[in-house]
Design a protein that fits this description.
Oligomer: single chain
Distance between the termini: 117 Å
Strand order of the largest sheet: 2-1-5-4-3
Largest sheet: 5 strands, antiparallel
Structural class: alpha+beta
Radius of gyration: 41 Å
Order of helices and strands: HHEEHHHEEEHHEHEEHEEHEE
Helix content: 40-55%
Shape: elongated
Strand content: 15-25%
Number of strands: 12
Length: about 400
């Protein structure tokens, strides 16, 4: 019984092998015939190769689907490439050996390199803290983040290293936080400066009030004098609050300029008349140099007058008796340039770039009266007119503050 079953199994295997062999050779013969017909460009296929025609149609359908998918992939790749090219954040892709395989333009700019490809991450980054963050990412296969300051380039960079779970490499995202850090510094300085500016008058008011409460109010000499000082401190606080409000409104764009044709000479004359008495009390000579035929500018007269008064006020504060302050205006290409020139103490070169910051003062000897906001307000007013303002100075020989307002038809 077992021998008959074995024989049956062998017979079945033999028949199956013979059938598959016949089908193989038959299929091969038909493929050769179909290939011959295709080479001879014959359109009418015989009935016995109809199944090969179906096979051809299926292959053509698969090829069409593949081409469509390839086209979609190319489109997505091009879109991703465009996004990476336009990103302001730097993107580096490194393989498992630490060789950079991709770098977008932002990364090349941030790390100041033109040919980062096929270089190591260490060669491209060139900062030990950022390199260590990348190495930790490679070792732990976990996302790492590191922020560093580059004093030589005055930059703050943040590196985020993300492991690539498929290739064993890593993706490095580099963000430039310089502007954010600068804004944080400005915010901290602003709060510190406001607190400092408020502390002095408030302390004076408290001391004066306590003195009056302790009996000085009934003193016919001290009482009025202390009340006068209280009034002065209250005026200073009121001025500071108003200037802070003005600065906030100007910076937020809430102040609308009332534009109208303005004569540069008339503008200088008006500001000069307002500050003439103050200059005389300080023992200073105030002069004007301006042609009569200068073209008008379209500007907010009151705001520009405020700028000139601020500049003249600063010149009066920092010029010794016997000095001179001159107001000038002239025409340059496409603009009217005004200047306030003094023979005062001058400004150190390292402070010229910061004098238009809120509350910034060169040193204690130049503190004087005021809130330290006038130049900042002036800068915003001029920029709101589409102009620019700057200063030139030499210590001991005086300063010149310039601003330009575009000439518009």
């Amino acid at each position: 019984m077992k021998m008959s079953q074995l024989s049956l199994y062998l017979a079945i295997i033999f028949l199956a092998a013979a059938w598959f062999a016949w089908r193989y050779y038959d299929l091969k013969r038909r493929l050769n015939e179909y290939a011959s017909l295709v080479r001879n460009r014959q359109n009418n296929l015989p009935i016995d190769v109809k199944d090969l025609e179906n096979l051809s149609n299926a292959i053509a359908s698969l090829q069409t689907t593949f081409n469509l998918q390839l086209s979609t992939l190319d489109s997505q790749t091009a879109r991703l490439s465009t996004v990476l090219e336009q990103l302001t954040d730097g993107v580096l892709i490194a393989d498992s050996h630490g060789q950079v395989q991709f770098a977008n333009p932002a990364a090349r700019k941030l790390f100041d390199t033109k040919t980062p490809l096929n270089h190591s991450v260490a060669e491209v980054v060139r900062n030990h803290q950022l390199i260590e963050a990348w190495r930790r990412c490679q070792q732990t296969r976990e996302m790492q983040s590191e922020s560093v300051e580059l004093p030589m380039r005055r930059q703050f960079l943040q590196l985020i290293a993300i492991p690539d779970s498929h290739e064993g490499g890593s993706l490095l995202l580099v963000q430039d936080l310089t502007r954010v850090r600068r804004l944080e510094t400005v915010r901290r300085d602003f709060i510190s400066n406001v607190s400092h500016e408020l502390r002095t008058p408030l302390a004076s008011l408290r001391a004066l009030t306590e003195t009056l409460q302790n009996g000085a109010l009934s003193d016919p000499t001290a009482g009025p004098r202390f009340l006068g000082r209280i009034s002065t401190e209250v005026d200073a606080l009121t001025q500071m609050a108003q200037e802070l409000l003005d600065l906030s409104r100007i910076e937020s764009g809430q102040v609308e300029l009332v534009l109208a044709p303005v004569s540069p000479k008339q503008l200088l004359l008006t500001a000069m008349d307002r500050m003439k008495m103050q200059a005389e009390r300080a023992g200073l000579k105030l002069s004007l140099g301006c042609a009569d035929d200068l073209p008008h500018v379209r500007a907010d007269r009151a705001r520009l007058e405020q700028v000139l008064v601020n500049l003249i006020h600063n010149a009066v504060k920092f010029t010794k008796p016997g000095g001179e302050i001159s107001l000038e205006a002239g025409s340059v290409i496409g603009a009217i340039r005004c200047a306030v020139r003094d023979t005062g103490a001058g400004i150190p070169a390292e402070s010229l770039s910061r004098i238009f910051e809120r509350f910034y003062r060169v040193d204690a000897s130049r503190t004087g009266s005021g809130t330290g906001l006038g130049l900042s307000i002036s800068k915003h007013i001029i920029e709101a007119h589409g102009g620019k303002i700057w200063a030139e100075s030499e210590e001991g020989r005086g300063s010149v503050f310039y601003f330009e307002i575009p000439i518009t038809n």
